[in-house]
Amino acid sequence: MTTNLKQPDKVQLSTWIDPSKRHNFTLLYKISRDGCNAQTFHSLCDNKGPTVTVLYNTSESVYGAYTAVSWQSNGSYSIDAKAFLFKLKYNGTAHSMKFPNKTDGKKAIYGHANYGPTFGSGYDLYCFSGTINKSGIIFPLNGSATLGYAYDMQGQDYNTVMNGHLEVLDLEVYSVQERMLLQKPWIRNVDWSQKFEQEIKEKVATYKPLPGLDLQQRRILLVGQVGAGKSSYFNTVNSIFRGHISSQANVGTTEQHSLTTSYRMYEIHDGYGSKTFNFRLCDTRGLEENQGIDDQDICYLLDGHVPDRYQPDALGFVKNPMQSDKIHCVAFVLDASDVDDIPEKVLERIKAMQPRMNHRGIPQVVLLTKIDEICEETSEDLSNVFFSTVVKECVDKVASLMGLPRSHILPVKNYECEVELDQNINILALLSLRRILNFVDDFLFNKSDEIAAEKMKRLKVSD
């Protein structure tokens, strides 16, 4: 489950809050996730500083309110001259308006243990009280909107802002914090220059298999939730070496299901020549709560039993795979904007796979995609990624979630809406791929040691 507030809306809200600054919006409360309950709202949102409340109604209108003071549950009003109501959309069409406080901040918000977010002396916007049970996908809120008491509505009313009803699909509350970049990057020695890009690109292009194992190509398995960006990661890497934006792998979802329907082992070509590099990116069907690869499937994939373009019930199962058929590194692909809302069953499936990989000694990394969607500084300039506290906190959270070192969590931004190559996108993707290939070599060094130890053991037995 992802947040509903879009990047352009965050920029608009940030401008209204303080046009001289930019802000981060961190989701605190979401009724479709946490339930529509006043006590839950207060437990998650009280004493959190400035917040913005956003409602999404069934008429495709988006509206809400901002307060610069913390929510409380003490049954009293709070003074806040910076508070305002707003609308962002009306009937699905962008229509942004800010409605400032007109009472010098008096009675700007009302905090009560049994009330949800409530704004204004006449309860200009009173979202709900107690507990609201969902009817299908709709929350019929039991609050009210007596607009105009404490906020200047500039000719707008209950009908032109809220369509005359309080039936919503969702309500979200975000913590609002001024954006800050670290003085020093948390990953160093990255030079965002064309020269640096070419150096990493050359290292990836000239990567050679470890001698002595009779392996022509290393295989990197991509595993992740539907829509996380597995196929897009291949397309991004492929684009870098093709010299233009490539969509060789189908991307997207169909009715929330994965467009990847078969196991694909993609080669990366050096431009349009016949030369291919010494690794393959192996794409799998996206994980869903009840679909995608399971525990048995992952074992077959890791052990090299599954050929390219293999589909369930298809012929071609590899009975006696060679070392070259096996997986040498697994890259879990996680959407940075969705880390807090990964379905429990999907996370359980991912965690159940890890012991199979650990048993085989296969290294694991996480490709943390869509980092531009969680940090506005990074969205505006990707070279800010390693100065971003938001991205760093997400990396730390994913490392803890997956039980992996932070150095195994690799932030990337795939090509999505771009029509031309971008140097910074290329650098991040190449850095992640170079890191993965280093892990592949670590695995194969261990494998080489195992083979040498086994040979020595046989010699001793024969003696």
Automatic annotation (TrEMBL):
For this protein, the record's SMART domains field holds:
TLDc (SM00584)
Under Pfam families, the record lists: MMR_HSR1, TLD
Q: Molecular function terms in GO for this entry?
A: GTP binding
Domain TLDc: from-to ranges: 3-177
Q: Which SUPFAM superfamilies match?
A: P-loop containing nucleoside triphosphate hydrolases
List the InterPro entries: GTP-bd, P-loop_NTPase, TLDc_dom
PANTHER family this protein is in? INTERFERON-INDUCED PROTEIN 44, VWFA DOMAIN-CONTAINING PROTEIN-RELATED
Name of the protein described by the UniProt record: Interferon-induced protein 44-like
Native organism: Mizuhopecten yessoensis (Japanese scallop)
